[in-house]
Amino acid sequence: MFWRYAFLTANEQDGSAQLAFERHRLKGDKERVLSELLSDLDLHHPPCANLNANRSFYTLAVLAWNVLQALKLLHLPETGSPKLMRTRLRHLLLIPVELKRHARGLKACLYAPAGWVAWWRGGAGC
């Protein structure tokens, strides 16, 4: 309904404008993923003054990110799984547990989201 204008400046003179805008959008998508990684895993400020320790910290964080992305792609349903990593972390790792004592034993009751009960049962081997 409305015209959409966009401007892009570049040093390259050859190539089509469509190709330049596609490259620009791809760069924006990569920056959004990096922003999601930094904000959802709270990695904005390095924890140490030592550069090697910070490199190890960020390497472990990216490894955790990749494991959670693989878990999302391989095991979680597309319709019920949340889009943001922050929400996935809350659902997968911060699950309320109630500990109950019964007959000299300890029982842990997990309270998983309703849509993920089948996934949790499959993962727990129940």
Strand content: 5-15%
By helix and strand content, what is the structural category? mainly alpha
Low-confidence stretches: none
User: What's the tally of helices?
Assistant: 4
Please, what is the average pLDDT?
78
What is the number of strand segments?
Answer: 2
Computed over alpha carbons, the radius of gyration is 22 Å
Give a quick account of the main beta sheet: strands, pairing sense, barrel closure: 2 strands, antiparallel
Give the spatial strand order of the biggest sheet: 1-2
Kindly report how far apart the N and C termini lie. Answer: 54 Å
Give the overall shape, derived from the CA principal axes: elongated
Q: Strand-and-helix sequence, N→C?
A: HHHEEH
Portion of residues within helices:
40-55%
Short recap of the structure:
This protein is mostly helical and 126 residues long.
Task: Report on the architecture of this protein.
This protein is mainly α. The protein is 52% helix and 10% strand. The protein has helices at residues 17-40, 51-75, 85-93, 117-124, and strands at residues 97-102, 105-110. The chain has a two-stranded antiparallel sheet. The longest helix is centred in the middle third of the chain and has 25 residues, at 51-75. It starts with 16 loop residues before the first helix and ends with a helix. The mean pLDDT is 78.
Features of the shown structure:
single chain; 126 residues; mainly alpha; two-stranded antiparallel sheet; 4 helices; 2 strands
